[in-house]
Amino acid sequence: MARAKGSGLPELRATGGGRVRMEDVAAVAGVSVATVSRAFGKPDSVSPELRRRVLESAERLGFRPSVLAGSLASARARIVGVVVPSLLTSFFGMTLEALAGRLGPAGYQMMVGHHEYDLEREEALVAASLDWSPAAIVVTGATHSRATLSALARAECPVVEMWEISERPIDAAVGFSNREAGRAVARHLIAGGRRRLAFVGGAMARDLRAAARGQGFVEAALEAGLPEPRVEVLEERSSTAGGIAAFARLMDADEPPEAIAFSNDFLALGALFEAQRRGVRIPEDVALAGYGDLEFAANSTPTLTTVRPPHRAIGTAVADHLLRRFEDPGAGGEIIDLGFELVARASG
Amino acid sequence: MARAKGSGLPELRATGGGRVRMEDVAAVAGVSVATVSRAFGKPDSVSPELRRRVLESAERLGFRPSVLAGSLASARARIVGVVVPSLLTSFFGMTLEALAGRLGPAGYQMMVGHHEYDLEREEALVAASLDWSPAAIVVTGATHSRATLSALARAECPVVEMWEISERPIDAAVGFSNREAGRAVARHLIAGGRRRLAFVGGAMARDLRAAARGQGFVEAALEAGLPEPRVEVLEERSSTAGGIAAFARLMDADEPPEAIAFSNDFLALGALFEAQRRGVRIPEDVALAGYGDLEFAANSTPTLTTVRPPHRAIGTAVADHLLRRFEDPGAGGEIIDLGFELVARASG
DNA sequence: ATGAAAGCGCTAACAT
DNA sequence: ATGTTAGCGCTTTCAT
């Protein structure tokens, strides 16, 4: 792969093999590589005339800076590693879209990984992300393995934990209190006159935020002087099938609950399906509440009472926080509580 | 940030500032950087003894190779750029999870971007991906802008188009025929004795695969000698709200259809909700069919007839195809038709 | 099997 | 404002 070296003649390079480098652009524009680099990186530090010439030459040659080389030289890659539990739910999808929506235009790419609520896999993903010297790393939740924690603490970039807020985050946290969300649902159901409550949680052993909601739910019931709610723990996460099974078990008990809260709207949807089959009236016979405020919750028959987490807002806030810190490396982490919203509808 | 240079003493480096480089590991292990590089990159080319020493020293120092530097030096980054329309539906989520599930263990990271079915945004995402010199790039669908097409054609890496198969893909294609899927639904409904058909499509102007299904649906109806199906095009994609509105419009018409196919299960779910409200019996009064075989389709009341696309299989097949080509750079693109499955249930 | 040395393509001091 | 010159931390010939 022959290539003209040194102060080349300002000719167009032959088509074909070999990538176009800054050196080539510099030669054609009649400037140094530093100027070309500046014209792209900090346009204001280059005179309008030269900037024009550089950009024009670059355009003519079809030059695209190698972000790999740029990252290595500047010791910072415009990558943000994002680690979420799953790519299947619209929850994290919303957050990712909001995140990418702000990060993309700012020139940052997302490197995404998912771990199915497995802390060991999270560990591997965090390590893999860190290997790229990312500009920042975003993880989900406030609970991590020892190794993840120390890797994150050692990281030379901003670290944000999202979807849950803890008192002492590693660096920054953006989310809301899942426990409070659980309490809010219980209080709402209790205010509706229900006394025998139940909670159905999907994969709470691994999904610690669902577990936190369940915990808050039970707490609030006890504080209100009600009998301890029955808690059904499902193996799977968020499936209508799980909701159907749990609903059936609960309603077939000697003393069926008067209200059931689910850790996910899909679970509640399953209960709606099963209630319809059984002729159980919602909310007359039993009140139902979900979590997530997925699109169908507002349109089901009956419409579903649920909790709306700040999915998009989390993504936007994380992005804004990071962009601010990229601009001002002096800025530190912060805790941003975005809250949640209880959406009372017909089901309970 | 002081750092010992030259042939250092084989001491442990001081804690704190500065990253551990191969040079440090080499010094401690008493070998050259080349050997350290080989010990990590091609372990078989290093004697067992030295390999052990290198790995041990690396471990002791907490050394992690800079993949940025490695990528630059070898001119290939272990990144796969993946561009999907959306991160909100489990369709692409499934594919992404399957893809990451195979690519991750092989040492490749996914760089994900979404474009909301906007070909211009796809163009930008493809360009941004290419800037990283990825090992491969995966895009969704077979239709792209001129610029995207030429950028992809010029790319020095495998390019795979997924979720649709075309006769002449840019390089490789993994998916199924959306048009055939539409035809299959129509044939199924017709076989059930329905003659007045309708199709409800979400955002078909942009979601070209949904449009292809609609086209196939209409074609099959005409071929069967039926009157041309009414086609309702919705602005939004896949919402129960849209399904409700379309169902209402269709059923309020002078001659309501005997069967309705939707471009998405959520649309059909909305119709189910609305039918329940109106007391319209499914499938007695009107048959309903969806697309996607989302989890709830098997559990709704009534259960939903739908088409199951090979979401996971697409991800796995794309990953396998790529991994094969990474091993054997001589291998070329291929067209992999994974088919789809019509799942007949109670709704139609 | 191992080492020496030359880059990979760019950024960032440091000069001018 | 622009150019010169070191690297960034690896991989990879090419020797030995």
Automatic annotation (TrEMBL), chains A, B:
The keyword Amino-acid biosynthesis does not apply. Residues 20-74 form the HTH lacI-type domain. It comes from the Bacteria. This is LacI family DNA-binding transcriptional regulator. Keywords: DNA-binding, Transcription, Transcription regulation. Pfam families: LacI, Peripla_BP_3. SUPFAM superfamilies: lambda repressor-like DNA-binding domains, Periplasmic binding protein-like I. One of its GO terms (molecular function) is DNA-binding transcription factor activity. InterPro entries: HTH_LacI, LacI/GalR-like_sensor, Lambda_DNA-bd_dom_sf, Peripla_BP_I.
